[in-house]
Write a structure and sequence with these properties.
With 384 residues, the protein is an alpha+beta fold. The chain has a 6-stranded antiparallel β-sheet, with no helix packed on it. Strand 6 and strand 7 form a beta hairpin. The chain starts with 6 loop residues before the first strand and ends in a 7-residue tail after the last helix. The relative contact order is 0.14.
Length: 384
Amino acid sequence: MKFNQEFSKWVACWGTATSITKRTEITYSKDLTLRYPVKICFSGSKLRFRFSNITGTDDVKVSKAVLAKTGGESYKTVPITKNSSSSFTIPAGKEIESDEIPFDINAGDNIEVSMYFADFTQMNAGTALMSGFEKGFFAYGDWTESEKLPDDLSMETNTFYFLNTIDIYTEENNRALICYGDSITCLSWTDYLRERAFKNGQGNVSVIRRAVCGTRVLRQYDCITYQSYGLKGAVRFPIEANAAGADRIIIHHGINDIIHPVGVEVNKFRPWSDMPTVQELKDGVKTLYVEPALKMGLKVWSATLLPIFGWRTYNKDRESFRKEYNEWLRTSEMFDGCVDFDKAVRDPLNPLSFACGCDSGDHLHPSDKACYLMAQAVPNTLIE
């Protein structure tokens, strides 16, 4: 494939979110290679990369970053640069964007992004994905130019550090769908949706996962005990809803606002004052999510919250909250539509609970079967 005038705009083709990665001590690494495989969903002629250190308190120096296409006869790396330099710094609390990297690629091709950190590096900006579809690797030493990482010096990781978004210069009709949420969106429903969009849609919609475990709409924990539970909506959304070529977003958020507060007598970091009213949560979604999204030119789809019967903080009041909130998500005219995840995975004979085989076991997170059903519940209009 050669450079072609049909490629006319930038579209995000892969993405994750960034949060604080450790719940206890800050971790530093040295002489480390990180490698992340990514399937590219669009054809294009250039790539660019967003690197994030928004939750870091130290600047992060990337000694070297490269990309390579995999699956071919030869493994050839291409430098990822910033201001034409192959070594660059991600400032603490900031995100940066690489130079535009000429790179001919076809839809369905696989690439690897490898980063090397020679000096002590604060590993405090990233997010853990629990889907089983996406994984990365780390290795001691600089292996950025090597096709294979050494078995005795490398391991898999489900934490994606620093690499936040990949944009591709592609065709005008391609666009991005953002999936915004918490730990449930860290699971595999977005992966199944990505496969469905690529294989069964028109092949012109990417699925960008913006998910951080434990996050709430209205609150965030400013204690180190729960620091990895991420940033509140007012802080997260303007950053994560920013994706090149995105024109729509699914928002599946709010369950942690309902289930986290337990009172200081049980947990000093989870006071009852953190429990919103239903109206406060609705108002938060409107002012923090819907109104900013509309200003960004995004169509906004709500998504109902899943069953929680049997979860350790379940009670009738929380269930009543969830039910009323879900009904608003289904019927409010402020949304362009609603993805009814609750209906897709609940037991039709006992709608308070997950259907058989849809509970992961903790009565909060869906099983892989349920994630597949959630992906199928997304209307065709969002991926075609």
